[in-house]
Amino acid sequence: MSTTSTSGAISFTGLGSGTDFASMIDKLVAVEQTRITSLETWRTSWTDKIEAFQELNTQMLSLKTALEGMDTKGEFLVKTAGSSDGNVLAATAGADAQEGTHTIEVKQIAKNKIMATTNGVATTTESINTSGASRIFAYTYQGTTYSVTVPIGASLTDLKNLINIDGDNPGVKAAIVNDGTSYHLQLRGMDTGADATLEISGTTTLAGYGASDFETSQSNQDALLKVDGWPSTYMSRATNSISDIIEGVTLNLRSVGEADLDIATDLDSVKENIEAFVTQVNTVRSMIQELTKVSSTSTSVSTSSDTEQTRAGSLLTGNYGIQLISSRLKDATAGTAIGFDWNTDPYTSLSSVGILTDAQEGSVTAGLLVIDDELLDAALANDIDAVASLFSAYYEGSTNSSDFSYASHIQGITEAGTFKVAYTVSGGEITSATINGHEAKVSGNTILGQGMGNPENGLLLEIKNLTDGSYSGTTSMKLGKTGELINNLGDLTDEKTGPLAILEDNYNDITDMIDKKIEYEENRISLMESRLRERYARLDALLGYYDNLSTSLESQIADLDD
Fold first, then answer.
1. In the chain, what percentage of residues exceed pLDDT 70?
2. pTM of the entire predicted model
3. Which DSSP symbol is given to 440?
């Protein structure tokens, strides 16, 4: 029978020889397709790893974000400020606030200036400038005069808008108020304090809106107050939000009166921060455990009743990038806090405050951080500031010597750590100095760490002892556990240099290579199929020819026999 070809592709429409060549070709192609199937399975194993990297990276970034919300003592060590009379004042307290009670006497609160026109108009749309020419409305605010031009026919609404949208307006709000019968222009200075003066300028030419046409409904004034009966005369402030009287406390004055202010540490909030720290770290640890776990299964031995254990790894078991991440994070939580000293700091590691890694095999929390509530409560009761420092000290400088003191450092340049300091004085002047074994820059009675790449670069120390001689000691830049983990996570999740980013790039290269192999195999198999169909089509036609020839010969022989 015949074969047909459509668009270069040969297919069998019948069986010229009685042989099913189409099925033969399909099966041969299917055998070759197993190579592509193997490549696709191989590719999937790599893409699964890439997806796991991305999920782990996302979780580590979430951990970093959570820790950034508690990496300073002000965020970690929550203080409360309770007022005995919320109508008189409210307050907020930061980490630097000292626990205790203060009595606040408010003689007057700070106010802004408010004034309005004495004579009103019937509507807000009628003209207030009927002079036949443009006029000026001017006011003086905090000693500087500002003015707007009021066109012919302008209404009260127009004047209000001209004042408010003026690009030079320094902070004066115009509004329209109604006394029940007429509409008035009201001006309010937006700043409080005795210096926030507001007056109508004598340069105003708009009739009905001069200085004599306004009355003051509220005069601007400073806040006056005493704290714990001090000082003998009242302190004055231009604002009702005052943060420079009691260290770490912001007072918000509300009315005249007296109130007691109680500053206390919110222990429950501090414990919540610690629990959040542990929970967030464990979330990442649990994900790493799941990605790298090795499972065991029991199988029967066919020749006996014995069983043997088969161990199977997970998706990323043994992956060096995951091992590096796991090691870095464990070291950060298990080690001594950077810049801390066992001799001077009450707590130097998480374990010292009752946060340990569960090492009990088979435990549901094995390999995760657990809290010993008894130890933690004891640490918080003993020295809550020291616990807060362990978690959230943020590049806090200190020294162990009275000969020199910490002065400052450069944020983002100076690294946390403990550094040896040595200097020599001759003739009352510093003749040489080193920090961390490197030469320091001497300027007057200060020495400065220097050298690009040196951890002490930018660290400034003030020399107290300038008596001739040689001196030594140590200086520390403390970094709490949250800050240490944040730095580690920043390195590990870096989009270019982080291990997951590097591995993902490598694995993407591998999948690209597999894609090329798959493409090559698809082209090869397609060409093979085309050639097979062409070859077997010719064979089918040839066999059909001989089959027809055989039938013809048999017919002729049969005729001869007759």
1. 93
2. 0.72
3. P
